[in-house]
Amino acid sequence: MHTIAILTEAAALYGPALPMQIDINPNDSGLPGISQLRTIVGAVMTIGLILSVLALIVSAIVWGFGANSSNPHLAGRGKVGVLVSCGAAIICGAAVTLINFFWNVGQQV
User: Fold this and answer.
1) In the chain, what are the domain boundaries?
2) How far is residue 89's CA from residue 83's CA, in Å, rounded to a whole number?
3) Which of 9, 78, 92, 106 suits a disulfide with 49, CB 3.0-4.6 Å?
């Protein structure tokens, strides 16, 4: 019973001080070739964004031809292409923002 009383008193005294600020930063120099990897990832994201915008243009043209020629299959394929290419462009364009957002959410846990 004496141990429980001591633990209760200690929790009452040190209770507000228990949550501590934990600040962990990633090691930027721990991985060999990280600068080249960042360059490659940046180039791939740029190429992905350019290709998705190009696919958006082509899909819009296909959708237009399908709608103009009363071909529902072609128009449907164009619509799907527009939606997929818009999704790819949004993901490629917002990848850095999404990663930073989830990193900050993870730091608050």
Assistant:
1) 34-109
2) 10
3) 92
